[in-house]
Design a protein that fits this description.
alpha+beta; Lipocalin; 2 domains; 8-stranded antiparallel β-barrel; 10 helices
């Protein structure tokens, strides 16, 4: 789940504007745990609640990456490092060895999400991200799965779908923006971005900053709701074009929507503007 969270929401190092403040809920290996933390004059103060219902208050030092505090866990003293991310926090628990040094070999990395943030479920027909550039990917599979891939996989997948479907995707500006966001976060996305950004009236710095702000301010769910609505409509158009067994009425309606979108000329930049 930690890898999934990073793929979905924060595949970049935490931005300086992110601050630890509020309640964070554990997921996956940390499910049932929660951390309440707030800044104070000396750094941070908070309480760690484990999955068994026990709690311990802590004072944390503010460090460049976030916060550090010493806790007692499972009969061991551990250093908790908590790094803020737009969706929540990454928490590293590093036990102290008998000689007082940190035992990095026994460290655990856990994921916590901000209280109130919901996460999408992995789709039933999810496929793994393509591992090499040029690898062929069906457009339907790409649209179904890209949001769960790391940025490098999105680059490979976007370049691996047929050109006509990249053109079709432009008719669904919210999806186009979401894909651009993931491409912008990739280390080697220039070739894909050259195609995806054409005529979209956006640039990567604006996209990354705006989406990060949505996550920080609790508006990311509304953005993803618009993306998901268009993503489902795009999948129907793709399936109709690929000859899936879908009713004629459904494909006729999809064709009308596609035609309306082509006439409207809505761009990813216009979608982004709504969320600034």
């Amino acid at each position: 789940m930690l890898a999934l969270l990073i793929c979905l929401l924060a595949p970049v190092i935490a931005l300086a504007a992110d601050q630890l403040n509020g309640t964070y809920l554990g997921v996956d290996d940390a499910e049932g745990a929660r951390i309440r933390i707030a800044p104070d004059s000396g750094g941070y103060q908070g309480t760690f609640f484990d999955a068994k219902g026990s709690s311990q208050a802590f004072q944390a030092d503010g460090v460049e990456a976030g916060a550090e505090a010493v806790l007692d866990m499972d009969n061991r003293t551990v250093l908790m490092r908590m790094v803020p991310l737009p969706f929540g926090a990454q928490v590293q628990l590093i036990p102290f060895a008998a000689d007082g040094t940190l035992d990095f070999g026994s460290a655990r990395v856990l994921a916590f999400v901000r209280e109130g943030m919901s996460l999408p479920e992995q789709p039933e027909h999810f496929i793994p991200a393509p591992t090499r550039m040029g690898q062929k990917v069906s457009a339907n599979a790409f649209v179904e799965s890209y949001q769960f891939w790391e940025p490098a996989g999105v680059v490979n997948g976007y370049l691996g779908i047929p050109e006509r479907y990249r053109t079709m995707m432009r008719m669904f500006a919210a999806v186009q923006l979401d894909v651009i966001w993931k491409l912008c976060l990739a280390d080697d996305g220039d070739r894909a971005l050259a195609t995806a950004l054409r005529g979209q009236e956006v640039a990567c710095p604006d996209v990354i900053e705006t989406v990060s702000n949505l996550q920080r301010r609790g508006r990311f769910d509304s953005y993803k709701a618009e993306v998901d609505e268009q993503r489902k409509a795009l999948q129907i158009s793709i399936q109709c074009a690929d000859g899936y067994r879908i009713g004629k009425a459904t494909c006729d309606a999809a064709a009308r929507r596609l035609a309306d979108a082509a006439i409207s000329l809505e761009t990813a930049g216009q979608i982004l503007q709504k969320y600034r």
